[in-house]
Amino acid sequence: MRLTMRERRAVVNATAKRYQHASKKGRGVILDEFTHTTGYTRTYAARVLAHWLRKKVLTIGGVRTIYVLGLKKSKPKGKNAPKRPATYGSDIVRLLKILWAMAGGLCGKRLAPFIRDVVPVLERFEELPGLTREQRKKLLAVSPATIDRLLAPERAKYQLKGRSTTRPGSLLKHQIPIRTYSDWDENKPGFLEADLVAQDGGIPASNVIHSLTLTDVASGWTEVRALRSKARRWVLEALKEMRSGLPFEILGLDSDNGSEFINEELFLYCQDQHLTFTRSRSQRKNDSCFVEQKNYSVVRQAIGYARMDTEKQLACLKELYRPLCLLTNYFLPSAKLLSKTRDGAHVTKKHDEPKTPYQRLLNHEAVDPNVKAHLKRRRRSLNPADLRRQISSCQERLTKMTETKAQTTLRKKRKHLDAIY
Predict the structure, then answer these.
(1) What pTM, to 2 d.p., does this model score?
(2) Distances in whole angstroms, Cα of residue 56 to Cα of each of 59, 68, 71, 76, 394
């Protein structure tokens, strides 16, 4: 039976004083009884009981007076409130910034397992000199929420946006089936999504440098290669080269409807190699959500949106993607969506524990033991700090090339205008 507002107020009036004078354990018991009686949520009920009749403001003879009604006084708030000493000082924040930059700007939920996994590796390579036992203990214990709070000022400085350059390819489109999830065993490594990222600087063109991204659905293993253009010959050549370096056999390939993928050469190659070749639906980015996510988190966050179309930039990109793929696959954890439920406008998502693609392959029973042993040997030889330094070096060179080209173009425009006038 639902209580009226008058009845609820009577229940609150009878319960509040007992709640405010109870111990922490006693307040929990009272809250259970109170929420069951009134139907309030636990958070709202605790707030109501804690502040019920605590203070009363009366105006008598034009004078505003505050009366405290003999209940337990609240703790002082604002500037006069006693502050709890900070658990994580400036030294821990400095170390968090270093590890956050090394990981490429991960969120707290992914950065926390990264820190616990990579700190012993960095100590082995002597990349954290002067790290005390107390600092190490705090780094390994810091929670994702605390990481986000401490790094919020740094994270607010960076934000990137982009655009799509996919153009439809109608040739053989009817022969390449639309991917349905019943056709793929997404829990087994080997089924990959492919996509291109254009470095056109916001001006669509087919002759600029493109990045080809391959992402394994089951493990999240990602490989990226720089292409001279989006021509189908470069796409097929890169796919063959990437296939030879993957730690598992390719079983299926899914792409968008761009002509760089929907063509006879790639279609016949997949038929000859007995690969399941499917395509996504037009204008449905969620059909290729795994690789679309990596286009941003791996490619765009590393190289941005500047226009690139020179041979030097292509060579530098190829050099950059090697350490970037190693860092992403062996050290950067990601969380996979387990379920999504909708209750009206509220959507609840549940993710698994963040793991690196390397860890997911090691835990998968379908991966050959010899491959797992090779992956373990490879990881032991990798220094994540050194990989990040290689990436940063290539990024600085790319930035200088882009700035130099922009300045050259600007000088030519000014010279042309001077000649006109």
Answers:
(1) 0.75
(2) 10, 7, 12, 17, 66
